[in-house]
Amino acid sequence: MTRRTFVLGPAIVGLACTQAGTDPRPQPVPVVTPDRADPSPPVTLPLAGLTSIDPAVHHSCALESGRVLCWGQNRGDSLGVGQGLPDAVTTPQPVIGLDDVGPIVQIATDYDFSCALTRDGAIYCWGSNNGHQLGLGDTDDRDRPTRVSLAPASRVITAYEHSCAVEREQRGVSCWGTGYGDVPVAVPLLAGVDQFVTPGGHTCTLTAGAMLCWGSNSGGQIGNGEGGCEYDEPLCAHCRRLPERTCKQVEHPTAPLELPPIAAIAASGSYTYALDRDGGVWQWGQVGQTMSYGPKPNYRPQRVAALPPIAALSAGANHACAHTQRGELWCWGNDSFGQLGFEAQPGESEYPQPRRVEGLPPVTAIAAGFYSTCALTGEAEQTIAWCWGDNGWGQLGDGTTERRHTPTPVRLRE
Fold first, then answer.
1. What CATH number is given for 5-234+241-412 in this structure?
2. 297-301 mean pLDDT
3. What is the pLDDT of residue 406?
């Protein structure tokens, strides 16, 4: 995410040219049974005290009254719900092993793994570990949460085969996984960080309203007025293998051009977003394209003119969503899997201008996954989670594996 992220928020310098083209599209599966043996029909939430939700690629997790629930594909034990479940777990299940670690205050998910942050600042991760993304010194998958050894943190960030944490005291950043190592290491020259996003090819930070980015600039995602890749031969649609290419890199933290003071940031592999303090949304990079070599990207920040003042935003793989203070939800970008939340026109999959998502109560939180989107409505005990988009592994949590083009409530079994 990917991800991915609420950010308010997937970067490894040197991975950008390959990461932007990654397309881990899940294949539909025939399994729709939500649990082991319970034949009762699923019932619509609310979940009492639901505070956040985070969809990834093949699975999703939510935080409810300090406990973590996950659903979707359990590849690499990414759900943390134990053995004996079907490949597609289509309704939320409680994560095993977090009851005694203290209340959970934040969750983060990405490619087949998840992490949770406790109130005391401890980080626990589980799932796939082929890139050392669990930070445990090995590449063994974990079927239940295992603590990462590092100083107390205020935020955990997950991305493609790596993870990062913002430290609670000095607000420095430590990362682990592909490009960093098998255990957490400090990222040099970072301190006082308020927000941090690292979607897989580039990294951005926010400190006291000032934004800095570095890493891959293949799609102009740094926002410094430059970008792109050079190929050693022309591209062709029928090629089995892309020719070699050299993509621009920005090695040192660089401020995107002509931005006002920023309140929040979000990013994906080939584009970046910023929310200014007046509710304006700015975007740059390869926005809304399914492939990194589509039409010319934006190399400098541009204001998204069609939006009202925004309270929060989130970025998926090729789409973004944002909501206003009044709870109006707007989405734009690629809609190949229904992730924008409205019935698309026949033959249309790209919507560069934001469109209002209808049929929802006022939205209080938004989270864009890889090919899906989730939102929360209501407050306290009346909070309800809604998801839509790709559902090949049950990652929408509605008890099925059917793709949804409009918001559908996440469901539990009684």
1. 2.130.10.30
2. 90
3. 97
